[in-house]
Amino acid sequence: MMGKIGVAIALLALPAGQAMAGELAALDKDIAAQFSMNQTSVSFTVCGTIDGISGCFGSATLSSPFDYACGVLQGTPETNGNTVTRAIYVLDKRTSSNSHVTLYVFERKDVISNGSDSVSATLKTSVDLNITGGSGSHCLLASSTKYVYASTDASSEVVLMKKAHNKIYGIIESGQPLAITTDERGWIAIQFSGGYYVVDPDGDAGEEGGGTAALASQRDGWIQN
After folding, report:
1. Residue 173 class from Cβ within 10 Å (0-12 exposed, 13-18 middle, 19+ buried)?
2. Class of domain 27-209 as given by CATH
3. For 168-185, how does the pLDDT look when each residue is reduced to its tens digit (9 = 90+)?
4. Could you give the CA distance from residue 45 to residue 58 in angstroms, rounded to a whole number?
């Protein structure tokens, strides 16, 4: 692990990865996955319109021994023929504060043809984030194009996982994490109890300060109650 950049971020060197997908796949532009989650189960149903046919086309349950699932995030879709593939990330904060928070990575496939969608989801790996959670903690989960940012408010660190390798890339620490916000370009703002830290879409160190900072996207509003 390299030394900390500024006062807050430490990074792990990894080999160069493949390019990430960009634009939304045209095949699935009129369908959406509707998720439901409880402590030990995460599932989704795909509904919308395909070839002029409207309805719900398929569903899948993410099969893993979740201890306390608390957050779901989808990756960028990639299209090959009539198949759309993307990652699904599930954050598990665990029931005990003595157990490490875990990030599960699934591969979702939608095979779309003739007005139908064959849906599947397969567990690819799990990543021990080496941070504290527990049933009483609150989860934080967001992503840029290249990285997943995950933590709980029972920890003192936000973990960066590189999507191309599903391995921990670095940590950002500056007190108790309170919120992670992002915009459509992939900028990330992390609010800590003692200040904030902003990271650019490539995961490089950005602005930091002692006050409050948050990002608002075109589709996901910043709410402060």
Report:
1. buried
2. mainly beta
3. 999 998 899 999 999 999
4. 6
